[in-house]
Amino acid sequence: MEDRRRSARVRSIFDLRVLDTDLLRIIGRLEDVSRRGICVINEQPVTPGKVYQLELVVPLAEDATERIAFSAKCVWKRQDPEDGSCRSGFRFLRVGPKNMAALERLLGDGFLLARQDGDRRGAPE
Fold first, then answer.
1. I want to staple 58 with a disulfide (CB 3.0 to 4.6 A). Which of 30, 66, 84, 114 is the partner?
2. Structure pTM?
3. The domain spanning residue 54 has which CATH number?
């Protein structure tokens, strides 16, 4: 089947948390990111079609973090039949210039690792 993605994804090599800022709770961990959105390994349930106010929590030093804020729409949710984990895809709706610059730094600073070809776990077909 044809892949609907329009931009390359890169996988997180660190445990980056994704925070729902409306509910002040961690919804999961970042699996991968592109310039158009993110994939999250869920710890809390999410609703496809719903718009969320989210933050990526990026560790900088021992006691310091950077928070990258954005609004995103949950466009899909899938449960992995092998391990039972749940993943969801979010499309960016609003990312301010400062936060977009932080995402670009994140993509280039070694926090993320290029995704292997053919690894489409959790992605919609």
1. 66
2. 0.77
3. 2.40.10.220
